[in-house]
Design goal:
The chain is an alpha/beta fold and 232 residues long. It has nine helices and ten strands. Bound molecules: adenosine-5'-triphosphate (ATP).
Amino acid sequence: MLEVKDLDVYHGNSQTLKGMSLSLAKGEVLCLLGRNGAGKTTTLKAIMGLMPARAGSVRLEGEELTKLSPHEVPKRGIGYVPQGRRLFSELTVRENLEIGLMTRKSPRSVLEEALALFPRLEERMGQVSGTLSGGEQQMLATARALCIDPSVILLDEPTEGLMPSMIATIREVVMTLRDRGKAILLVEQRVEAVLSVADRVCFVENGRAQAVMPVQALKDDPSLLGRYVGVG
Ligand SMILES: Nc1ncnc2c1ncn2[C@@H]1O[C@H](COP(=O)(O)OP(=O)(O)OP(=O)(O)O)[C@@H](O)[C@H]1O
């Protein structure tokens, strides 16, 4: 469904992605793991067109995305939940969600489906989003991404700084979306979260995918974590 191939991305003169490749299938969760600065966030930004690719390709169902302008990419059905959530903090929950709906002119039913996953948001529709708790903001950022009715969802460290009950909620939602056939690309630092939600793991090192394996391989041999990310 999503195919990233030999992607080169630069920050100024410094090359951040050096031939990054990965593939993501419908109904699977692929987790990017790697040390700080390895290029995980940059990979998500490059898929969204927020960082230009100097070489390589990003294809969704065969369509090349690297030539599109950044606002076109969500319209193709890729939902992005960035690190730090990037909500419109002065706007209400409802307004943030409406912006998601407008992006792809999704029907109301898409919003209702998103809210059904997060009943807590439904109780706070009129609240200014900057006053929500961290966990609620994460729910809102995720629900907003779902408002474009995406086939692919990119989540950048969605559980960072959240309390355990919120982490459990986000995990449940990821599993539900996967079961509904969404393709999910997840950046996650917490190893136990990776082990509990991922189908496959991609170790990112120095701007490229060093190894890709089923999560079971990691469960069978936790020393792989030490080799690739310096933990475990
Ligand atoms: N705005 C920027 N300007 C210059 N260099 C940047 C910028 N953003 C990221 N980089 C560099 O790109 C490299 C990859 O960063 P990236 O954020 O993709 O890493 P990451 O694997 O997501 O790590 P982290 O877990 O720290 O977010 C790093 O060396 C970083 O210093």
